[in-house]
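Appendix B, example 12.
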Amino acid sequence: QVQLVESGGGLVQAGGSLRLSCIVSGGTFSRYAMGWFRQAPGKDREFVTAINWVGGTTMNANSVKGRFTISRDNAKNTVYLQMNSLKPADTAVYYCAARRGPTSARFDEYHYWGQGTQVTVSS
């Protein structure tokens, strides 16, 4: 079975940076797209960014465009989320997810999920 494990969350000050990692194991990943979602208390799960394993195609939410960058290391089966210029509004639990097929911004189209990692941005 496919497993995803996130790491790298923590507490940072506004304007700071943080790098999240997601290690994927248990399957063949060439056909999977990877995504990052986040969920703040009382809010719906929100799409952040996604990347296709094969072609490097990416999608980004407008709220993080120019600040967040998704990347991958296929040799390590790892996807990263580099977060710069963090704002208090970025505070949320960040989830790594995988799906069969192309990139998607819809959480219900992803098949596998990690446990999440907390990101807190103080003002």
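The first strand starts at residue 3 and ends at 7. The mean pLDDT is 94.
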